[in-house]
Amino acid sequence: MVNSVYYINKGINQPLTFKGLKAQYIWYLGGGLVVLLVLFAVLYIIGINTFIILIVVGGAGIFLFTKVYKLSKTYGQYGMMKRTAKRMLPKTIKCSSRSLFIL
User: Fold this and answer.
1) Please, are residues 29 and 21 in contact by the beta-carbon 8 Å criterion?
2) How many Cα atoms within 13 Å fall on the side-chain side of residue 102?
3) Is the pLDDT assigned to residue 1 strictly greater than 70?
C-alpha cells in the first residue's frame, strides 16, 4: 500500500499574475511583443540597417514595458475596464414625455 501526499492549490480564485503584471496586462504585453517582432522582421526585409532597427525596436520595447507595467500598477486587475465602462455611461438622461412613467 502506497501513501500518497496530495497538495492543495491555495491559488484558487486568485488573479493571474506574472512578474508583477496582473490579469489582462499579460496579454497586452504579449501582443505588443508580437507586434515588435513583426516590426523588426518588416524593417529587416526592407533593408534598413540592423543597428537602426535595433534602436527603434529596442526603444519601442522599453516604452511598451514601462507603459504596460504602469497601467498594471495604476489600475490593477479590473480598474481599466471599470474606467472604460464608466466613460461610456451618459452624463444625463433626458426624457421629454411622461408616457414612459405612466404605463
Assistant:
1) yes
2) 4
3) no
